[in-house]
Amino acid sequence: MDITWYLVLSAFVFAIGAAGVISRRNPLVVLLCLELMLNAGNLALVAFSRMHGGEAGQVFALVVMVIAACEVVIGLGIIVAMYRNRLPIDVDEMSELRG
Amino acid sequence: MWFEQVLFFIAGIGALAGALGVVLLQNPFYSVLSLVGHLLGLAVLFLLLNAEFIAAAQVVVYAGAVMVLYLFVVAYIGGADEPLRPESGGVALFGPLFALAIAVELCIAFIASGLQALDTRGADVARPENADQFGSPGAIGELLLTDFLLPFEAASFLLLVAAVGAVVLARRRRGLEEPSERPEPPTETLEVRV
Amino acid sequence: MSATSYGWLVLAFPVAGMLIISLGWRLLPGRLPGWIGTAAIFLAFLASIGALVDLLDHPEEERQLVDSAWTYAATADFSADLAILVDPLSVFMCLVVSGVSFLIHLYSVAYMGGDRGYARYFAYLNFFVFSMLLLVLAANFLILIIGWAFVGAASYLLISYWYQRETAVRAGIKAFVINVIGDVALVVATFLILDHVSSLDFLTVFEGADRAFGDNDGTLIAACLLLLVGAFAKSAQLPLHTWLPDAMEGPTPVSALIHAATMVTAGVYLIARMHPLFELAPTAADVGAIIGCATLLFAGTVALAVTDLKRVIAYSTISQIGYMVMGASIAAYGAGLFHLMTHAFFKALLFMAAGSVIGAMAGIQDMDRMGGFRRAMPFTFITFTVGALALAGFPLTAGFFSKDEIIAYAINRGDWYVALAMLGYVGAFLTAFYAFRMVFRVFLGEAVPEARELEQGHLAHGEPMNPMTGEPEDTDVGFPGPEHHVAERAWSMKAAMGPLALLSIVGGVVAIPGISDILEKFLEPTFEDSRFHDTAPTTGAEVWGLVAGGVISILGIGLAWWVYVREPGTATRLRERFAWLHRFLVNKWYFDELYEAMFVRPAATIGGFSRRVIETEFVQGTIVGGATGIVRVGTSVARAVQTGYLRLYALFLLLGVAALTLYFLITSS
After folding, report:
1. Which of C96, C181, C402, C452 has the greatest number of beta carbons closer than 10 A?
2. Which residues of B78-111 are buried (b: 16+ CB within 10 A; e: fewer)?
3. Candidates 3.30.530.20, 1.20.120.1200, 3.40.50.1110, 2.40.128.110; CATH matching B1-79
4. C117 and C168 in contact (C-beta within 8 Å)?
5. Cα–Cα distance, B187 to C639 (Å, whole number)
C-alpha cells in the first residue's frame, strides 16, 4: 500500500479526535479523544519511518507513547481529585480562567 | 499483495470505527473499550509497516496497561454522561466542522502533488545478514542507547515525575470524605480564634 | 570694601533674617523673631551707609558701578546676569527703604506683640524688604522683573496676613491681580526694548537707546507706556489704584511700610531709572504726567469724604505718589525723589500714629467714633500732627520743600505743564484740608469713651470684629492678637516714631532752594544724561513757588480748622446739602463698581460657562469619556473571548491550526 493511505487514515483519526475533544463534556472522554490524536500522530510517524527506511520515527513513536501514558496518568489523577472534592465532572463547569 | 491490502482495509476500518466509537458513544465505559479496539487496529497497521516492536509495545503497554488504568478510573468515577446544562450550540457545531476542515486540508496535502517527497511504496528495508532487522527490538534498542539516548533518558525522567505526580494528586487528604460514605454530623463545635 | 560689596550685603542681611526666622521660629521665644528681623534691616541700613560712603569716595564720573555675581545665560547678543547696580539713585533708594523699614520693624516689634503669627509676620516683612532692595539695586531688566514680582508676592502675603478674615484675603488677591497686570506690562516692555537694543543691562540700554530708537519712535512709546502701566499698577495710580485702599486690611505697620514708603514708590523709581527712555518718548512721559496729576486730584477728593482713618491716609498716599509720578514724568527727577523721601518719612509716621490710635480704640478704625484723644495720647497727638503738617506742606517742614519744588518745576517747563502745576496747587489745598480733617476729628473735640478710659489709665477692650464689615471675629491663629498697643506704652513704638517726626521736620534741609542742593548734586551722576538737566528753575522762581505753596497749605489748614473746630456742624450740613457728591466721593468715584462690571463679572461668566459647558460636557464628557468609552468597548469585545470555557479555547486552537495548515498549503503550491 502506498504510504499515502496510512497518512490519510492518520489525518482522519486526528480529525475525529479533535472533534471529540471539542464536542464531549465528560473530561474522561475528552482525554480519550486526546489519546486518539496522539495515536494518529504515532501512525504518521511510523509511516514516515517506513518511508525513509530509518527507525528514528519508530523511536519517536515510542517516546510519544511514553508521553501519552504520563499525560493520561496525570489527567486521570486530576479527575479523581475533582471527583473527590465533589466538583461536577463537566468541562463546562470548569470556567474560572475567565477574562 | 492482495493480502496486505485486505488486512490494511480491515485494520483501517476497525481503527476508524473505534475512533468514531470513542467520540460518539455516550457511556464512557464504552468509549474506553472502543479506544482499545482502535488501538488494536492501529497495532495491526504498525505491523504492516514493519514496525514490530512498536506494534508489540502498543498492544502491551498502551492497550494493556494504560487503558486498563483508564477502565479502573472510569469504574471509580461513574457512569453515564449526563449533561448538567443544555448544550451550547455554537461550539458543538463548529468543532466537527473545523476538524473536517483540517482533515480535508491534510488529505489535500498528502494526496495532491504538493508534497513530492512522499514515496508511494516506501524504502527498501532489507538489511545485511548480521544486522538487526528493520523495526526489530534490537534495532530500536541500539538507537535508543546511541543516537537517541537523551530523549530516552528524558522520557524516563518524565515517567518518574508523572508517577510522583499521580501519587500526590490522588492521595487521600485528611478530612476529605468519599462521596459514597455518609458524612457524619460533627460532634464538636469548631474553635474560632479571633 | 567696595560699594558693590556693600550692595550685596544690603541684599544679604534681609535674606538672612528671613531664613533664620522662617526656619527656626520654633526655637525663637517671645519677641525674638521681631528683634532678629529688626536687626537684619538695621544691618542692611548700615551696609547702605557703607555703600554711600564708598560711592562718595569715587570721583563723580565713576559713580555708576555694576557688579555681576553670576551669569544665568550668555548668548551672542546679550547676557543675563545676576548683577547689581550701585549708583546714587539706587543708594538713595536703599537708604530710604532700609532706614524707614528699620523704624517700621522697630514699631512692629511692639505693635504685633501677642499675635500668634508673630514670626511669620517678621519673616514676610524681611522678605519684602529684600525684594524691594533687589528691585532698586537691579542692574538689568531681568533682576528688576524678579524684584518686581517678589515685591508683589510679598505684598500679597502681608495684606492677607490675617488670612482667616475673608475681606483681607480678597484684598490680597485684588492687590496681586492688579500687580500682575503691571508685571505683564513690564515684561512685554522689556521684550520690546530687548528686541531693539539687544541688551538687558540698564547702562548698555541707556547708552544705546538714542541710536536704536528714533525720536518719539512708536515702539519706544509703546514700551514706555507699558512701563508706565507697570509703574501705575505698583504705585496705585489711576486706573490701577483700586487695590490700595483695600490693602488697608493688612496690619498698620504693613500699610506704613508697603503703602507709604516702599512698594508704592517702586513705580516712581522705575520712571526715574528709565528716564533716558522716557525722554526719548515724550508722549509717554506726558501721559505719565497727566495721569499723575489726575490721580492726585482724584485721590484728594475721595480723602475728603471717607471716614475710615487708614483709608484716608491710603488715599493721601495715592495722591502724593501722583505728585511724584508727575514730577518724574516732567523730568524733575531730583524733586520727585526728594518728595519720595520726605513722603516716606511723614507717611510712615502718619500710619504709625494711626496704628496707635486704632490700638487705643481696640481695633476700630472709623473716624466717626473717634475724638478728643489729645489729652489721653499726647505723644501720638504730637507725632500725628507733625506728620499732618509735613503732609500739608506747612512752611519749613520737609513736605513743604519737596512738594512745592515739583510744582515749581512744572511751571518752569512752560506750555501746558503750567496747567498741571495749577492743578497741583489745587491738590495741595485739598491735601492740607483732609490732613487736618483727620487731626481735628481724631484728637480735638469731645473725648470719646475710649479716650476717657485711656486718660484714666486703662486701655479700652472691645469685642474683636472686622473693622470693615463690623462682623464679630474669632481671635484664632492669623487674627489680630488679643492685645492692643499704644505708642504711649510701648517704648519701641515711640523709638520708631520719634526719629520719623524729627526727619519730617528737618528732612527738607537737603534741598532748600538757594541754600543747599545736597540731594541734587548727589543724584547728578545718574541724571546728568538727562536732556532737561539744565532746565531747573531758578532760585527766585522756586522761592515764589514755595511761598505760594506755603500760603495754600495754611489756607487749607485754616479752612479745616473752621469747618471742624470752629463751626462743628458745618461738615454735617455740607454733607446733607451735597449728598449726591458725597456719595460719589465715598464710593471712590464708583471705580470698583465699574471694574466689577467691566472685568470681574464677564470673567466670572466666562469661567462659569467654561466649567459648565467646556469642561464638564465637552472635555470630560466627549473627549475623556469618548476615549475611555472606546477603550471600554474595545476591551469588552476582547474580553468576550475569555469566557473560561475549555471547549471554546480548544475550538480556537483548532481553528488556528486549520488556518495555518491552509496557509502553508496555499503558499507551497
Report:
1. C402
2. eeebeeeeeeeeebbebbbebbbbbbebbbbbbb
3. 1.20.120.1200
4. no
5. 47
Q: Does B177 touch chain C (CB under 8 A)?
A: no
The pLDDT value recorded for residue B120 is 64
Q: How does residue C515 score in pLDDT terms, banded at 50, 70 and 90?
A: low
Query: Residue C74: helix, strand or coil by DSSP?
Result: strand
Long-range contacts of C649-655 (CB under 8 A, 24+ apart): C650/A21, C650/A22, C650/B95, C651/A22, C651/B91, C651/B94, C651/B95, C651/B98, C654/A18, C654/A22, C654/B95, C654/B98, C654/B99, C654/B102, C655/B94, C655/B98
Tell me which of A63 and C531 has the higher pLDDT: A63
B102 touching C, CB under 8 A? yes
Residue B132 dihedral angles phi and psi, to the nearest 5°: -70, 150
Q: Measured between CA atoms, how close is A15 to chain B, in angstroms?
A: 5
* C472 exposure class (CB count in 10 Å sphere: 0-12, 13-18, 19+): exposed
DSSP code of C79?
E
**Residues written for chain A:** 99
At residue A91, the pLDDT reads 81
Phi-psi region for residue B176, left (φ > 0), alpha (ψ -120 to 50) or beta? beta
Whole-prediction pTM value? 0.69
Secondary structure (H, E, C), B47-77: HHCCCHHHHHHHHHHHHHHHHHHHHHHHHHH
Do C644 and A21 lie within an 8 Å CB cutoff? Answer: no
Give the pLDDT of residue B174: 65
Residue among B35, B15, B12 at smallest CA distance from B23: B35
From chain B, the residues in CB contact with A16 under 8 A are 16, 19-20, 22-23, 99
Q: What is the CATH number of domain A3-89?
A: 1.10.287.3510
Residue pLDDT, tens place only, C179-188: 999 999 999 9
Domain ranges of chain A: 3-89
- Amino acid letter at C441? R
Q: Quick count: other Cβ atoms within 10 Å of Cβ C289?
A: 24
Instruction: State the Cα–Cα distance between residues C9 and C12, nearest whole angstrom.
Output: 5
Q: How many residues does chain B have?
A: 194
Neighbour-count burial for C274-283, b at 16+ CB within 10 Å, e otherwise: bbbbbbbbbe
Euclidean distance between CA atoms C552 and C394, whole angstroms: 9
Which residue of chain A comes nearest to B133, CA vs CA? Answer: A55
Instruction: Please answer yes or no on whether C647 and A22 come within 8 Å at the CB atom.
Output: yes
Residue with grid cell 496486505, as numbered in its chain: B4
Tens of pLDDT along C359-388?
888 777 888 888 888 888 888 899 999 999
Residue C78, phi-psi category: left (phi > 0), alpha (psi -120 to 50), beta (remainder): beta
Handedness of CA C280, C286, C288, C293 (dihedral sign): positive
The pLDDT score that the predictor gives to residue C66 is 81
Identify the residue with better confidence: B42 or C636.
Answer: B42
Cell matching residue C604: 466670572
Q: Please answer yes or no on whether C654 and B109 come within 8 Å at the CB atom.
A: no
Q: What is the amino acid identity at position C649?
A: Y
| Interface confidence (ipTM) of the complex | 0.91
Residue C26, Cα to own-chain centre: how many angstroms? Answer: 30
Binary contact (C654, B108; C-beta < 8 A): no
* pLDDT tens, chain B, 194 aa long: 688 889 999 999 999 999 999 999 888 899 999 999 999 999 999 999 889 999 999 999 999 999 999 999 999 887 655 555 556 666 777 888 889 999 998 888 888 754 555 666 667 777 777 677 788 888 899 899 999 999 999 999 999 999 999 888 877 766 555 555 555 555 555 555 54
* Amino acid in position C520: E
